[in-house]
Amino acid sequence: AAVLEKNRVPCEVVAYPTDTDAAEPKADDLIRSGEINLVINVPTHKSTKLEDNYRTRRTAVDFGVPLLTNMQLVEMFANSLYKHKQEGLVGLEPKTLFEHYSQEKDGDAWTSPSEFH
Predict the structure, then answer these.
(1) What is the rounded CA–CA span in Å between residue 24 and residue 81?
(2) What separation, in Å, do the N-terminal and C-terminal C-alpha atoms of the chain show?
(3) For residue 68, what are the β-bridge partners?
(4) 71: part of which helix (H) or strand (E)?
(5) Torsion over CA: 65, 19, 45, 82 (sign)
(6) What 3-state class would DSSP assign to 39?
(7) Does the model's pTM come out above 0.90?
(8) Considering only CA atoms, which of 41, 82, 87 is closest in space to residue 65?
(9) Which residue among 7, 16, 54, 89 has its CA within the 20 to 30 Å range from the CA of 26?
């Protein structure tokens, strides 16, 4: 939390899922209730809270909460959020996957349009 606060990222300390006597709310309960919208959980070979890390990741997946588990990906995600906040979406118009494919030409496909999949 100290690193986040130092970089002006608002955060709140929460308890691990197995902390039975913690005063803070538990991370997995907050994920289940929809109060957490993104989980960043980057275990390393030095991690000591293996069960807590697993339960946090598993709860995120079970409840459809985006989960980042790779430090390089976390860094790229943070940089893209910063750039988006500074410049906006440059030349991008978000679309659903269905909208994307409806505008695709037959020549853009990797396979023949008549090929059965």
Answers:
(1) 28
(2) 48
(3) 40
(4) helix 71-87
(5) positive
(6) strand
(7) no
(8) 41
(9) 7
